[in-house]
Write a structure and sequence with these properties.
Length: 332
């Protein structure tokens, strides 16, 4: 028989072991559900399903959509309700661009070579080498985009991008000094930096960036560390805690998720058997808006399975914090 003191010590040791098992990031794999673009069905369809099973998710918001008042997207009030319920709000950019389509850094933003376009004394034209314009600024003031040159001729403070020939037409606020004005085209660095600031001003806690179109580059992964603790991208792979790059987390897209059973198989293989982190990339639920919607029935089945099997489901920032602590411990 153990003496009472030894017995108490054994109990204490057992308690510590059980506590460590319950809290250790090394214990088991995990799963995250992410919803890109902030579509309204995330609130109306996904939220009630996940709430019923006591699960939460991460939703990637695009600033110019959430502030547009367009009811295809979650309202600010709904997004706050999600955050209050433990969901994570992540940035999905200011305007949803790919880094190869616009200037990369702040220093690449200035557009030069303005010349009168010959049709209107106040409208100027310049060659533009990028595929897309996320926004234009004249001395820090946003210019309004039109889809027809005629509209630009009429309105000061506006622009038109002729994609076909790669030309920008600008009707500056200050046409007399147009050639000397500082006209800038939004860079990806601005997308990263200002989307975070804008979402924080709206009251959201932002530490995660979700890449639009699942498109990411080494340069932007490195730059993102200035603004975000973690970034979720694509690639249809799971994340290993010792080796994964927190600013380049992999996600499985909805096609690789297939039906619920396919998603369950991915979780069993990667999270349960190999102790990896499986992040799913979803968009809309049960509606035709957006890219590859998943059905509410599939989500219901998956959520019930996750709950029944006590799989650890985390937001992206929670998962990254666990992995970060493991990676830091390895470096010590
Ligand atoms: Zn997107």
């Amino acid at each position: 028989m153990y003496s009472p003191i030894v017995f108490r010590c054994l109990l204490a040791v057992l308690g510590v072991v059980l506590w460590a098992a319950a809290t250790s990031p090394c214990r088991a794999g995990m799963v995250s559900l992410t919803f890109d673009d902030g579509l309204s069905s995330v609130y109306s369809e996904a939220y009630p399903v996940l709430k019923r099973h006591n699960l939460k998710a991460t939703v990637g918001m695009v600033v110019n959509r959430i502030t547009s008042g367009n009811d295809d997207y979650i309202s600010l009030q709904e997004a706050h309700e999600l955050q209050d319920a433990g969901w994570e709000i992540a940035s999905h950019g200011l305007t949803h661009q790919r880094p190869i389509d616009i200037p990369q850094y702040f220093e690449d933003e200035v557009v030069e070579g303005w010349e009168p376009d010959g049709t209107n004394a106040e409208v100027y034209e310049a060659k533009y080498d990028y595929h897309s314009v996320a926004g234009l600024l004249e001395n820090g003031k946003p210019l309004k985009e039109f889809t027809r040159l005629e509209d630009v001729r009429r309105a000061k403070g506006s622009f038109y991008f002729d994609r076909l020939i790669g030309a920008l037409h600008v009707h500056p606020f200050n046409p007399m000094n147009a050639e000397r004005e500082d006209i800038r085209s939004y860079s990806y660095q601005r997308e990263l930096c200002e989307s975070k600031i804008a979402l924080e001003k709206l009251g959201f806690k932002i530490s995660t960036y979700i890449t639009p179109f699942n498109y990411w580059t080494e340069e932007m992964a490195s730059l993102s560390k200035l603004y975000y603790s973690q970034v979720a991208n694509g690639k249809n792979m799971a994340n290993r805690k010792e080796t994964c790059d927190l600013n380049w987390l992999y996600r499985f897209n909805v096609l690789s998720m297939g039906k619920t059973q396919d998603a369950v198989r991915l979780i069993q293989k990667h999270a349960v058997e190999q102790d990896e982190w499986v992040i799913f990339c979803l968009h809309g639920i049960e509606d035709e808006m957006g890219w590859e919607p998943w059905s509410a029935d599939n989500l219901e089945e998956l959520a019930a399975w996750l709950q029944k099997n006590q799989i650890r489901v985390v937001t992206v920032s929670e998962g990254a914090a666990l992995y970060s602590s493991v990676q830091q411990a390895r470096r010590r």
